[in-house]
């Protein structure tokens, strides 16, 4: 394994990069997966999805059904990917070489890296925007202090994210277990303090939307939650004991990722459905808008906890994006890879916070655009995982001449074709805020055109996932069987 370095879990900074985790370090249990996934998804940012979902024109009950199904199913898919981590003890994008080839994996690897960078940057942006809004509400800063406050907030948020990710897996796991209790407790307090803002009659009086609008909302939930994490799912299960139950890994991954978002999104739906002004404000500053519902004494604690929850999610992303960077052939230590991504995160945050005029538009457009190829990749890898009956040949994951070969034409071709088809069935709903995505939707004429009711359902994500899974399940069955017999 020429890409490896000497792993060590005894030092403060994790040195293990993309190499195979040694048996002596594989001490984690399936229930340990609850902590990182819960802590990363207990953020009050989840409440913002209530506003996003109602923006599709659906009713409260429709949005509730969509959110529960979308959250649980998307994290269930993450759990299936996590099985590979136990079987191969390597990061997700290294294990994906079994399906795409040792060198062919770089194609989905680039998409995965961009997805992780985008996610972690969006979380950092949200934290900075929330800081400015809350401090304004407290009266601690005025208009003249905005720039300085944003600069300081950007630096502090980036430092927290990068610092934790550089320290690595063991520190992050301990940190997430602490944050789970802290952020979970204060989130419950937030629910109690804002409960009186719910207008039950207004919330339940919203008219039903069409089935197509529900599907569009469902796609957004899936890409915004589980599918947004699916490319890093095995990174957190690679320290699992080899004897760990596959079913338990899937279960704890799904519970950890789903339980908080289901509650938070439903509460966010009640708040957004009660107040159209709040729903509109969430689009510009998700957490800052929610903070306006709190009494003054709760604002500063809310800000601290909100930042920590966002940082918690971003830490998972930047840690994994560093591993993905290494899997692409960048030969630097893992901590350095995390630091490189940290610089990119900081730059992206500065651009959006100081120069962009809209947040939610580009964010949703970004989710759908990268969500299509990521859904295709997930379909292929899930089929590969479910077809296999043995652990991975760990040496072959690093050897282009090994049983997984350098390139897998079936997987690569499937991902390319499925992505092209998928992009044809999604549309950029934010043409003004994200004009760089106006090229999508070129196949919508088959289902009513860009003005039809299915245009904004973003069926391309489902098409890419389902088509890739079916093709890989049947077309690669013989190849997987031969690989396991080699």
From TrEMBL:
It is found in: Membrane. InterPro entries: Pur-cyt_permease (IPR001248), Pur-cyt_permease_Fcy2/21/22 (IPR026030). It is a multi-pass membrane protein. Pfam families: Transp_cyt_pur. Keywords: Membrane, Transmembrane, Transmembrane helix, Transport. Signal peptide: none annotated. The chain crosses the membrane at residues 33-54, 60-83, 147-167, 179-198, 210-230, 250-273, 299-326, 338-360, 366-386, 406-426, 454-475. Belongs to the purine-cytosine permease (2.A.39) family. This is Purine-cytosine permease-like protein.
